[in-house]
């Protein structure tokens, strides 16, 4: 795939993510020229819809019930289109956004019934030119009553179609693709009263990582309850060892979490290199919609070898010369001390030599005077 094609797909996915959510509005993806997609997607709302005003699926079902959902697909273009349809469990991505993409992700350990395992879809649907088609999704509810929400999404996207570019040498490109998600909420009890999201932090999952080749510290937060958290604030402060000075801090608001899901809250390392050693994380989280607050203080270690590997991959890394400056300072201090000691020693030796020379001169002078005195006495005696 060419870089141009990759960028086109990224633009569309970005537009989709900005507009996606459990929203009842129709969403059309635009191409890079701003044109709307020729495909329309809408849910066929069944009788057991809890809120008929919603245009995503919000269904009250019985334990063990089987039900077939329908999604209308329309194609206003002049050529047939094949769309791919998948039923995916809701999860929370590392941006703190509820996501329904068809990614290979292990379900959270607290998720008892992933939507992807209780639903089946027709993988591909042909939508004729200037016509409509229906995608069908079969739901098999668990046999036991379930308190809370089973959350998922019906992910609709155009099947990849590779075309040769006409402007020579361009190779094979992928056409712009639309992406659309119809949200699904399933429950066997209409009332969710008394259920609140609850967060846990696993200190074993505080690990250095990278986002777009930039250093971040990942702090795993887990919503252990079968309900959404729709307005989450997290403030994380990182300290080095026993220092009281904040090394790095990241505070983020307006995040959301899917039921029974987890994500890695990223603390920006501000383009600084990771350094092996002991650290401390002080984290507070607030669920505005439930009025709940959590706090944790956890010690963790960054492995020096892992830090080195990540630093080698990092881009736009600011070299942290603090340790080098300290080492140079220590070295210069030691060198200065050695020079001072040498000066003192040499000066002492010089003074010692001078003292010895003076003593020698005094001794010689004294000897000369003594000899002269003896000679004078001898002359007097001969007389």
From TrEMBL:
Residues 367-376 have a biased composition (Low complexity). Residues 351-366 have a biased composition (Basic residues). The chain crosses the membrane at residues 324-346. Pfam families: WxLIP_HBD, WxLIP_PGBD. Residues 41-158 form the WxL Interacting Protein peptidoglycan binding domain. It comes from Vagococcus allomyrinae. Residues 171-312 form the WxL Interacting Protein host binding domain. It comes from the Bacteria. Residues 351-383 are annotated as: Disordered. Keywords: Membrane, Transmembrane, Transmembrane helix. This is DUF916 and DUF3324 domain-containing protein.
